[in-house]
Design a protein that fits this description.
This protein has 197 residues and is α/β, with parallel strands linked by helices. It is built from five helices and six strands, in the order βαβαβαβββαα.
């Protein structure tokens, strides 16, 4: 079984990736197991940030590394919060603080103009910092007027995927694993894990 570092300290994200890769010959390692500094996400796009994190953490730990950069883009806000989704309400902001800020900025926006999409860019690096695979997943939907559900993290409680009335945080894991931006990006790289195992 091949060990693969998931370049995040977000346990919710690690669990989601573990479920999606449960049938591959890969043992996931959490970034919490390593004493390495945080990589500054200086990229202008999700793709740039995922590559930067994959390379940096792979070289620091000596492990093949999967890094993703993902976030929410809201059309009425010109694509914000975008690459700063995790720190939209400020550095160190909680999920609920980020959600509250977003909802306040959309307070006067009607339901027909609350279009949004989740974007996930994934990069996989070998232990030397060479990128072997990149993929992207997109899930379109709308933003609800208030948070609903507790099965998720980040903006899940206010994101309603296209074709549904429930938020991501209200949907069963089985449905979310089929629809989510991260699931779409991960499914594209599963063949790589079979090759490197």
């Amino acid at each position: 079984m091949h060990q693969l570092l998931v370049a995040t300290t977000n346990e919710g994200k690690v669990k989601e990736i573990q479920k999606l890769l449960s049938k591959t010959p890969v043992e996931l390692l959490s970034l919490n197991l390593f004493d390495v500094g945080e990589v500054n996400e200086t990229g202008a796009t999700f793709a740039e940030n995922s590559e930067l994190k994959a390379r940096s953490y792979a070289q620091k730990t000596g492990h093949w590394t999967l890094a993703d950069d993902s976030g929410l883009e809201v059309r009425a806000l010109g694509g914000a919060p975008g690459v700063i989704s995790a720190r939209y309400a400020g550095v160190g902001a909680s999920d609920s603080e980020n959600v509250a800020k977003l909802l306040s900025e959309l307070a006067e926006v009607s339901d027909t103009h609350r279009l949004a999409r989740f974007v996930c860019s994934i990069s996989v690096s070998d232990k030397f910092g060479n990128i072997h695979f990149k993929s992207e997943g997109i899930c379109s939907g709308t933003i609800s007027f208030s948070p609903r559900g507790d099965n998720g993290f980040g903006y899940d409680p206010i994101f309603i995927p296209e074709g549904f009335e429930k938020t991501f945080a209200e949907l069963d894991d089985s449905i979310k694993q089929r629809l989510s931006h991260r699931a779409m990006a991960l499914k594209k790289i599963i063949p790589l894990f079979v090759c490197i195992s």
